[in-house]
């Protein structure tokens, strides 16, 4: 678990550093996490933000628990291709594509508890299907979470800019 947390933090730091290098004023660039809901936030990044129609990119979903309570996540299909996050893709003209990425393998349910101040990350393949036309898109991930008191809430990520050619 500590290795996964360390790798997630290294990925975020490396991604932030690469963004800062590309900016004329690096102090203006910051990580844009999704809205804080009960202390939980999602951050979405990708291995590649330029792709072609029909191609797949690896999207990295990082979540942080900034609350004072542990959160519980049940993964129905626990694998690198998990389908437990919902994704929406919105074009510049407002057309919405709602989809769930494919899962290459099925596994049993797994309950993961994320303690306060901990993070967790998942790498998920996202395919830009044939009906998605070339253009600029915003990708967003969302996920239901639960507290130890069995309260459920939905958390959404930042918007990831992707160009489809």
Structure report:
With 165 residues, this protein is mainly β. The chain has one domain: Sandwich (Immunoglobulin-like), CATH 2.60.40. It is built from 1 helix and 11 strands, in the order H-E-E-E-E-E-E-E-E-E-E-E. It is elongated. About 18% of the residues have low confidence.
Class by alpha and beta content: mainly beta
Number of discrete helical segments:
1
Briefly, what CATH class?
A: Mainly Beta
Cα-to-Cα separation, first versus last residue: 38 Å
Q: Strands, helices and their partners?
A:
Elements: H1 2-22, E1 40-46, E2 50-51, E3 56-65, E4 71-75, E5 86-91, E6 96-99, E7 110-114, E8 119-127, E9 135-147, E10 152-156, E11 160-164
Parallel strand pairs: 2-11
Antiparallel strand pairs: 1-3, 3-8, 4-7, 4-9, 5-6, 5-9, 9-10, 9-11
Task: Provide the descriptors you would attach to this structure in a database record.
13% helix; 8-stranded mixed sheet; Immunoglobulin-like; mainly beta; 3-stranded antiparallel sheet; 165 residues
Outline:
With 165 residues, this protein is mainly beta. Helices cover 13% and strands 43% of the residues.
